[in-house]
Amino acid sequence: MAVGPDRLPNFQTINGVRLGTACAGIKKPDHRDLVVMELAAGSSIAGVFTQNAFCAAPVLVAKEHLAKQRLEKQQSSGSSPSYLLVNTGNANAGTGAQGMSDAFVSCQSLAEHVSVKPEAVLPFSTGVIGEKLPIEKIQQSIPEAVSALDEQGWEDAAWGIMTTDTRPKGSSRLIEYQDQTIRISGISKGSGMICPNMATMLAYVATDAKVEEEALQRLLSETAERTFNRVTVDGDTSTNDSCILIATGTGVDIAPGTELWQLFAEAIESVLLELAQAIVRDGEGATKFVTVAVEGANSQSEALQTAYTVAHSPLVKTALFACDPNWGRILAAVGRAGIVDLDVADLKIYLNDVCIVESGGRANSYTEELGQAVMDGEEILIRILLNRGAVSDQVWTNDLSHDYVSINADYRS
């Protein structure tokens, strides 16, 4: 069950990136659950990671190895290819010292197979928390994934990083500018345990452009804030969230401040937003895709505080699932959002273009029939006009269905 069309793009191949998948049987037999990505020597790599205090072992190792790679690039003109190693079915989170050892061993195993240093490998895991990583299965399947490395491997990799997802997620763009071409492709996974505090899932985006690493990191941090950090399914921030942006440097050289950079930055944000919204559309048990937009706030924090209070309300989310225009639940959520000195007589609330609240109560123009027509749709806009300032922001969420409970009740079985 998911909202919107189920289709992957025709991925642009990225010169300098190859992807390979394997069936390691980590949780299920004959299931693609191990992905290796090979990145050309000299690639710039940027990353944003979960801020959950119980940060998973692979996240800690990936951050450490990424820092070592950057230091090596600064100290030496030479570099080797980098690799990303992703497993599903096991998060290797809440696993203590053993988890750290297993994450490092997985890097070491791939590194030995492809003749690079262990710090040239960034590990990523997703799946059940608190269970020991079946490192032997990963080690045994690394050769299969490496032998499958191919520039055309994006679709298989999109399938290979899925857990409770019902569909693979991908996005791709082609920028053409004054006889110059830049290609961008990306994949993501995520369906539950989705709430901002970094990027709320796993995502990998690559471009053939040549971009200095500091500028790439700044671009990713800024665009992740406006995309992945604006989606929520259930209010739970994962232990394993990671988003990686790669620029292989095999194509056009671009730098901030140019017209081409502006086009590039917009395209990167567009890809990240499509990947982020695809996660919401495929939220566990989702039947609705909902935008909660707040306008006229005094500050961004006030706008987001209001939006998330509505987006996280179980009463609002269950009403959305039931197609019930119970506008009082939205009103109540706005009222408890903690906005200081909120004048309820000044605000307005809309479902799509239907005004449901004004002057402190139900809008005079509102009818149940109008509200029902909006709630019956798959895509809904909840628009909240606070009329307190000039700041606007928005988040994307979904409904809360019976299937969400069932999926998470049976998750470990």
Map the helices and strands.
Layout (H helix, E strand, L loop, with lengths): L16 E6 L11 E6 L4 E6 L7 H19 L6 E9 L5 H19 L6 E8 L6 H13 L6 H7 L8 E9 L2 E10 L12 E6 L5 H14 L15 E6 L11 H23 L7 E9 L2 H13 L1 H8 L5 H9 L12 E4 L2 E5 L2 E2 L5 H8 L3 E7 L5 E8 L3 H8 L4
Parallel strand pairs: 4-5, 8-9, 10-14
Antiparallel strand pairs: 1-2, 2-4, 3-9, 6-7, 7-8, 10-15, 11-12, 11-14, 12-13
Global structural class: alpha+beta
* Low-confidence regions: none
- Count, helices: 11
Q: Radius of gyration from the CA trace?
A: 22 Å
For the record, the CATH class of the largest domain is: Alpha Beta
Tertiary shape = globular
> In CATH terms, what is the fold-level topology of the largest domain?
L-amino peptidase D-ALA esterase/amidase
Sheet with most strands: strand arrangement: 13-12-11-14-10-15
What is the first-to-last residue Cα distance?
20 Å
CATH superfamily membership of the largest domain, which one?
L-amino peptidase D-ALA esterase/amidase
- How many independent structural domains? 2
Helical percentage: 25-40%
Query: What's the pLDDT, averaged over the residues?
Result: 91
Looking at the overall shape, the CATH architecture of the largest domain is 4-Layer Sandwich
Number of strands: 15
Strand content: 15-25%
Biggest sheet statistics: 6 strands, mixed
What is the succession of H and E elements? Answer: EEEHEHEHHEEEHEHEHHHEEEHEEH
